[in-house]
Amino acid sequence: YVLASVFEPRGARGVFPCWDEPGFRAEISLTLDHKTRYTAISNMPIKEKIPLDNGMVRTIFEQSPPMATYHLTIVLGIFGSMSNEHKNMTYYAQPDKLDHLNFLAKVTPLAVAALEDYTGTEFSLPKLDGVHVYDYPGGANEHWGAVTYS
Q1: Out of the domains of life, which is the source (predicted)?
Q2: Cβ atoms of 29 and 48 closer than 8 Å
Q3: How would you classify residue 87: left for phi > 0, otherwise alpha for psi between -120 and 50, otherwise beta?
Q4: Nearest to 8 by CA among 65, 71, 64, 76
Q5: What percent of the chain has pLDDT over 90?
């Protein structure tokens, strides 16, 4: 099973108290307790993992910059992954869907480099994860640091 959030346009308010409107921004500090066999993914890099009892782990993410709450991404699942050195990019998929990552891993760094060249602005996020979620509602969500797609 995979848990993948879809907070756009106003879904975050159903998960935690917030002003869930595009004009408001919040710095988000996210901590998830989950089974150790699951990988936790969010917008920001993992700051710390703390082992808990009963096969659980606490994953603490770095605090986000101010952002609209509907941009928060939370993904939990059993994933395989591949990484590249370009801008700290990692790509995740369920183990039987790893072949879906090859194109993403090849094209994403090229697209980011082309956008950097075109805009004259360096990619400023600390990481970028691409997460393939089978049958993801809406097809894709492009959020800071974590892109989910089916």
Answers
A1: Eukaryota
A2: no
A3: left
A4: 71
A5: 47
d(CA 28, CA 15): 13
- SS3 of 107, please? helix
90: nearest Cα among 47, 146, 138: 146
Element containing residue 2 per DSSP (H, E): strand 2-4
Q: pLDDT digits over 43-98, tens only?
A: 999 999 999 999 999 999 999 999 998 889 999 999 999 887 776 889 999 998 88
Contact 69, 12 (CB under 8 A): yes
Q: Where are the alpha helices (DSSP H) in the chain?
A: 101-119
Closest CA to 28 of 121, 138, 145, 120: 145
- For 70, counting Cβ atoms within 10 Å of its Cβ (0-12 exposed, 13-18 middle, 19+ buried), the class is buried
pTM: 0.89
Domains in the chain: ranges and CATH: 2-149 (3.30.2010.30)
**Interatomic CA distance for residues 44 and 30, integer angstroms:** 9
